[in-house]
Amino acid sequence: xxxxxxxxxxxxxxxxxxxxxxxxxxxxxxxxxxxxxxxxxxxxxxxxxxxxxxxxxxxxxxxxxxxxxxxxxxxxxxxxxxxxxxxxxxxxxxxxxxxxxxxxxxxxxxxxxxxxxxxxxxxxxxxxxxxxxxxxxxxxxxxxxxxxxxxxxxxxxxxxxxxxxxxxxxx
Length: 171
Fold this sequence. Notes:
The protein has 171 residues and is of the alpha+beta class. Helices cover 28% and strands 29% of the residues. Strand 2 (49-54) and strand 3 form a beta hairpin. The longest helix has 16 residues, at 87-102. The radius of gyration is 14 Å and the shape is globular.
């Protein structure tokens, strides 16, 4: 979701956490064929560590759901599609995304998605009060492969083309 971009076409390098998670019995395919790249990008996304800032407190996904309620959706405008723009361009895209989100809800918080095994991270937003289909459409508008949904029990990755979804217990 702002952070360091990677030079490859995949959003994150194949990480040890993603490899472990893809073999973990707790990670499940909700529907579709989630292998979207040679490295299994869906599993990389699912291994993302999420933090959400609420009133100055940096919360884990589980803490945020407990405090804010569920579901929460998370989206970024960082690194659209296969592009790897500069940090400045990514930040500008996120400002446009924030303006879009304000059209749908006033329940918006800063969020960061991090790869556990590298310095890669992307800034974005967590938001509430928006239907899943609308949240996915916003992600698609900003050319994202997927968005996140947090429930009381799961961290879900939903493809923006509605062809797959994967989940794990909320960390």
